[in-house]
């Protein structure tokens, strides 16, 4: 019996001479542009490019509506690893430039990758892993996100002002990011903040809404967020409030925590100075 490359017995991460990492995925993945299904694959491949923290999918040609692809009219340079071939997508009455491309690696010959619409404003509108819609980028199988109810004592200060004090947080542990503390609304001084129209999406948690600090000081906007309708895997954070550890002072069980340096730190510092 021949073992399909996506079978668990054959699973491994492979490195190409170009510096790409890739491995087969067992997920059924579909991508749509409007009402048109452009990708429908039970044998996708996850690809990690050097310098990019999140993976992307590449699909066998046979699983892609290649009749909807045209050689790119104005292909970009330096956007992906190696010398790729780019394609414009023509579907649902619209052309989306550079929506798809191929990787130069021999290992990935015969595969096509697509941009994800809500990350780059091009590519496809909707992606599904099995029957659940996925956003922003594919979920990394080597990353964990755990939301655990706790009775630890959490106090949060913004610019020296106590804004939250609780013994009922939910701690969210996410690979490569600091622990986030999701607090009951009744334990947060929300009168010190005002809601904004800012929203972000996360493939592991859902869509977040934000609040901004009303006071003075070098405090960035959109400091507080909530997931009103989180994905089932992190249902425990529903409606709770979290703060960016990078720019607030958190005291956990009487111990003041250091502010972590994360991929968000530079963005938050710049936003605070612009206020």
Give the SSE map.
Elements: E1 14-15, E2 21-24, E3 29-33, E4 36-41, E5 45-48, E6 56-60, E7 69-71, E8 85-91, E9 94-102, E10 111-114, H1 117-120, E11 126-129, E12 132-134, E13 145-149, E14 154-158, E15 161-166, E16 170-174, E17 180-182, E18 193-202, E19 206-213, E20 224-226, E21 242-243, E22 249-252, E23 255-256, H2 265-274
Antiparallel strand pairs: 1-2, 2-5, 3-4, 3-11, 5-6, 6-10, 7-8, 8-9, 9-10, 11-12, 13-16, 14-15, 14-22, 16-17, 18-19, 19-20, 20-21, 22-23
What would you say this structure looks like, in words?
- With 275 residues, this protein is mostly beta strands.
- It has 2 domains: 8-134, Domain of unknown function (DUF427) (Metal Binding Protein, Guanine Nucleotide Exchange Factor, Chain A, Beta Complex), CATH 2.170.150.40; 145-274, Domain of unknown function (DUF427) (Metal Binding Protein, Guanine Nucleotide Exchange Factor, Chain A), CATH 2.170.150.40.
- It contains 2 helices and 23 strands.
- It has helices at 117-120, 265-274, and strands at residues 14-15, 21-24, 29-33, 36-41, 45-48, 56-60, 69-71, 85-91, 94-102, 111-114, 126-129, 132-134, 145-149, 154-158, 161-166, 170-174, 180-182, 193-202, 206-213, 224-226, 242-243, 249-252, 255-256.
- The strands form 5 sheets. The chain has an 8-stranded antiparallel sheet with strand order 1-2-5-6-10-9-8-7, with no helix packed on it.
- Strand 3 and strand 4 form a beta hairpin.
- 33% of the residues are buried.
